[in-house]
Amino acid sequence: MAEERNVIVLGSGPAGFTAALYAARANLKPLVLKGLDAGGQLMLTTEVENYPGFPDAIMGPELMEAMEKQAARFDAELLHQGATRVDLSTRPFGVWAGDEEWRAGSLIIATGASANWLDVPGEDKLRGRGVSSCATCDGFFFRDREPVVVRGGDSAMEEAIFLTKFASKVTIVHRRDDFRASKIMKDRALANPKIAVIWDTVVEEILGDGAVTAVRLHNVKTGGVADFPTDGVFVAIGHTPNTGLFQGQIELESGYIIVEEPTTRTSVEGVFAAGDVVDRIYRQAVTAAGMGCKAAIDAERFLEARGHRPGNP
Q1: Fewer CB near the last or first residue (10 Å), C or N of the chain?
Q2: What is the DSSP letter of 46?
Q3: Residues whose CB falls within 8 Å of the CB of residue 10, separated by 6 or more in sequence, listed in order
Q4: 137 is catalytic
Q5: What is the DSSP letter of 79?
Q6: pTM of the prediction?
Q7: DSSP 8-state code for residue 281
Q8: DSSP state of 265
Q9: CA distance linking residue 294 with residue 302, whole number of Å
Q10: 308 phi/psi in degrees, rounded to 5
């Protein structure tokens, strides 16, 4: 017989760890399946300067380690495993990690979203050292510098425009001779005196030893290759929410889980969702943590309404 838990949390970024903390302090004894890439996208971030309470900044992995320790202090059980299958058709819900199986009175999904990358040489090595997928997170580090933004959709226009608040110049590199972005975003970017565009061009490699120094550009029309000096590369090709496990079982929109705002309730009663798996707009650690808090409170109230007594499944 599979072991039944009050709350199972899937994921371990700011949303997952905060949900675990609040559920544990409510004596719900949550089980957290952290996933194989525990800690979420902050594990790829160097200095975090915009998380409240850290005036001198904190390293991304250090912040996630502190969140995990805080949840564990209140007896959240954290396993370095990722769910491989879920069954949301009946409650208690079925959750599997390989051959292990649990049942959940409530489920909090905080599996996050993965940034889409270029998959070119140098990108992995320099991620967090000049390569970023989030101008809101990292734009401040590019004050008076000249970063590059790659691609030409709305995300790229938003990133480029935001970066002009700090950078002295922003260069958009786009593989076509026109942007795919909406007209209003395209016009806004092209009208900005700090933004330049290199058309018909792709990034073949990101160069630098310890920090980004240049990108190797390939013109798709002429075939020409040249190195373009830059202080940073913002890859603006969107994110993919990690919702493959829930396809066909829960209501999604463009892969993101739909919740009943302002709550974290999903289309399945007893299942709650928080963080980047829901949020396609803000994608910040602090907003994810806030949603994790809401999800735990929603789960606690859901269980209470069904006669649950803290400490017992």
Answers
A1: N
A2: S
A3: 16, 33, 35, 82, 83, 86, 95, 107, 108, 109, 110, 111, 245
A4: yes
A5: E
A6: 0.81
A7: S
A8: B
A9: 12
A10: -70, 140
Report d(CA 23, CA 45) in Å as an integer.
27
Give the SS3 label for residue 11: coil
DSSP of 181-216, one letter per residue? Answer: S-HHHHHHHHT-TTEEEE-SEEEEEEE-SSS--EEE
Distance linking the first and last C-alpha atoms of the chain: 14
Query: Which residue among the candidates 99, 119, 124, 138 is catalytic per the annotation?
Result: 138
- Note if 293 is an active site residue: no
Active site residue 138: yes
DSSP state of 82: -
Q: Give me the amino acid identity at 32.
A: V
CA angle 277, 283, 284 (to 5 degrees): 125
- Checking if the pLDDT of 268 tops 70, the result is yes
Tens-digit pLDDT profile for residues 151-191:
999 889 999 999 999 999 999 999 999 999 999 999 999 99
